[in-house]
Specification:
heterodimer; A: alpha+beta; Aldehyde Ferredoxin Oxidoreductase,  A, domain 1; seven-stranded mixed sheet; six-stranded mixed sheet; B: mainly beta; Ubiquitin-like (UB roll); five-stranded mixed sheet; 1 helix; 5 strands
Chain lengths: ~600, ~70
């Protein structure tokens, strides 16, 4: 980026970002310096990409006019800790309104690809049209401008995400990689393809410790375009960390904000896995397709149980001191770590484990590993498979597919495997379409066509207004369990003001764990922007930019045909209340109706003002 | 009065899962928490008999005080 001002909020056009548009049909490239329209453009990520998507009239995800936008944020590749994010945006194959129009979507991932991309000098890559032949894209740092080239990728076809990255690493030094797997290659039959992003740990150890931009099927869109991988090749650019950023980084690690995510041996809480223990206290850990039973089954995947049998290595993203990765390894006879099995985060652990009736760590690890290798979103896959199991439980006389039932690991494994290979499009197209085909939609756990995360919807009416997935684009998911908030005023304020700020991290290039409670409108971020780029931005300006970006996302949903009746929780929540959950019941029809009314009063007015 | 204290997740490390403890009548939640010497950066959710309370809440004989860390997803 080039900064011709130090005040990007009032003079955004004096900030220019470097964009390359690749036309896969003609093979032409357009490299340009683009002036920013507003602070959202300057920050980057979906704040910028959604403005481009809003300019397109897209009726189906798989059309040539649907671009795949790969960009970074202002602090990607910076000295600020967690500044590793890459964003993938486009109209989603999986998230679709009832009118049949695709929703705009973004997905974010760490790994070192984003930093390398930024260091080539490129801020954004827009992929137009599609290629007849499989290709991969190489973005290289040169003396002056970044260089972008297309290469034949036939040799990568059919490989896992890890296999592609390992193959490309043989060819490219000092580079990092983004790759789809068989799921993305089978884009017609798998709408939840993810994009894998290489990590330093992966390239060094040769173990498949990959990061993912998983949600919304951006890997499937990449597969549709016949782009199997991307290479970002550049030298590393980080020197001595400026003092204000060093202070912010120390605050991230020691200030309490990330304490819960640090390894237990360092006095931390052990990563997102700890959510199991906390939510189980309320019997709010999803079990058997989001129907907690009020028993202790989820405890079998507690960390304390798993570490009796397996080695848990606490590892981190590049230059990140949070160290939130819990990588599960077999334990050798001498007690040292053996083969790598999988990374245990709360979402995949639950949705491919307890919520499928599976309680053995090794089985869950194998399913997570399968999804990672095929490049398939664990949330969409897990929720769709749990629907199948729930259907089969209700219809033992006429089950779906192989008749899998909760806890039947072998059959569940077959379902996941066949889905990833494109052999089960009914599952690969997600739970909304599958449930519509069976006619039993009440227990399909999605909101607006995107499968929900591993937080019971009974505890989170905010899901309805998340604009890019169940929990990472609306931070209300812990509000009832954590804060005990049951009053309408608190929920309205959270949804319309405070908790939507979480999406700021999907603009600026930082991971949410930088400061998940407060968002990016903080002195820490203000100080980082000043020290890294010499920019003067206030907390209020950052918060306002995030709010505008969120409202654009909401506006875009409505333009793509979403009716307000689609902003609702899965019907089973109110039709068949689950009294095993010991938290106060927020999902009475009266509460939800009043919440809806008051939230829309605010959002309708604000969207009108934005337009 | 007798209070049952339950600790969850990382708060159990090096401590216990559940213990019955004696406190004077009219003890507040905050006083119990202070007496336990828990890591403040982890303690987040305070429940008495399953309901969220703050540190000023007055405990009654036989109450179950549950102490939990913050829940965060990913």
């Amino acid at each position: 980026m080039r900064f011709l001002t130090d005040n990007p909020a009032s003079e955004p056009t004096s900030v220019l970002y470097t964009r390359c548009t690749v036309d896969l049909e003609s093979g032409c490239f357009l490299m340009e310096d683009v002036p920013c329209r507003n602070l959202e453009d300057v920050l980057g990520g979906f704040g910028r990409s959604f403005q481009m998507l809003a300019e397109r009239d897209i009726q189906s995800a798989y059309v040539e006019e649907n671009p795949l936008i790969i960009n970074v944020g202002l602090l990607t590749g910076s000295h600020a800790m967690t500044g590793m994010r890459t964003y993938f945006s486009g109209y989603s194959p999986i998230k679709q309104s009832k009118k049949g129009l695709p929703a705009a979507m973004w997905s974010a991932g760490s790994g070192k690809f984003g930093a390398k991309l930024k260091w080539t000098g490129l801020d954004e890559l827009v992929i137009e049209n599609r290629s007849e032949q499989p290709v991969y894209i190489v973005i290289r740092e040169t003396g002056d401008r970044p260089e972008v080239t297309l290469k034949p990728a036939d040799h990568l076809l059919g490989m896992t995400t890890h296999g592609k990255i390992m193959a490309l690493q043989e060819q490219y030094d000092d580079a990092h990689f983004a790759a789809i797997g068989p799921a993305g290659e089978n884009w017609q039959n798998v709408y939840a393809g993810a994009v894998a992003l290489s990590t330093v740990n992966q390239l060094k150890s040769k173990q498949d410790k990959v990061r993912f931009a998983g949600r919304g099927g951006m890997g499937s869109l990449m597969g549709y375009k016949n782009v199997l991988a991307m290479v970002a090749q550049s030298s590393d650019k980080l020197g001595r960390t400026p003092e204000p950023i060093k202070k912010a980084n120390i605050n991230v690690i020691k200030g309490g904000g990330s304490a819960r995510l640090q390894p237990i041996k360092r006095g931390g809480g052990g990563g997102t896995w700890a959510a199991y223990d906390v939510l189980q206290a309320f019997h709010a850990v999803p079990v058997n397709n989001f129907r907690p039973q009020g028993n202790d089954l989820p405890e079998r995947l507690f960390r304390t149980k798993v570490e009796q049998q397996y080695e848990i290595k606490s590892e981190a993203c590049y230059r990140c001191g949070i160290t939130c990765h819990n990588n599960i390894h077999e334990r050798k006879a001498d007690g040292s770590p053996g083969a790598f099995l999988a990374k245990f985060d709360y979402e995949p652990l639950n949705l491919l484990g307890t919520n499928l009736g599976l309680h053995e760590a090794a089985q869950v690890a194998a399913l997570i590993h399968l999804c990672d290798n095929y490049g398939m979103d664990a949330i969409t896959t897990g929720v769709t498979v749990s629907y199948v199991l729930s259907y089969n439980q209700r219809h033992p006389e006429k089950p779906l597919f192989n008749g899998a039932s909760f806890g039947d690991y072998d059959k569940i494994h077959d379902l996941v495997k066949c889905t990833g290979l494109g052999q089960l499009p009914e599952i690969g197209h997600g739970v909304k379409r599958l449930s519509e085909s069976t006619g039993e939609t009440d227990y399909a756990y999605h909101v607006k066509g995107l499968e929900i995360a591993a937080y019971q919807p009974e505890t989170n009416p905010g899901y309805c207004w998340a604009i890019a997935g169940g929990h990472m684009s609306m931070g209300t998911y812990g509000m009832l369990a954590r804060e005990g908030k049951t009053d309408l005023d608190s929920w309205v304020a959270a949804i319309t003001r405070d908790k939507l700020q979480i999406v700021g991290f999907d603009m600026i290039g930082l991971c949410k764990f930088f400061d998940i409670v407060n968002g990016i409108g903080t002195d820490m971020v203000v100080d980082c922007l000043a020290a890294e780029h010499g920019l003067k931005v206030t907390r209020e300006e950052l918060q306002a930019a995030v709010k505008r970006a969120f409202l654009r996302g909401l506006t875009l949903e409505i333009r793509q045909g979403y009716g307000k009746e689609e902003y609702c929780l899965p019907a089973e929540v109110t039709a068949n209340p689950n009294h095993n959950i010991t938290l106060p019941d927020l999902t009475t029809p009266e509460f939800l109706a009043e919440l809806e009314k008051r939230v829309w009063e605010i959002f309708d007015r604000e969207m009108q003002e934005l337009i | 009065m007798k209070i049952t204290v339950k600790l969850y997740a990382v708060l159990q490390v090096g401590r216990y899962r559940e213990k019955e403890l004696d406190f004077p009548v009219e003890t507040k939640v905050g006083a119990v928490v202070n007496s336990l010497d828990l890591p403040s950066e982890h303690l987040d959710i305070l429940l008495v008999n399953g309901r969220h309370v703050d540190r000023e809440f007055l405990l009654q004989d036989g109450d179950v005080l549950s102490l939990l860390p913050m829940v965060e997803g990913g």
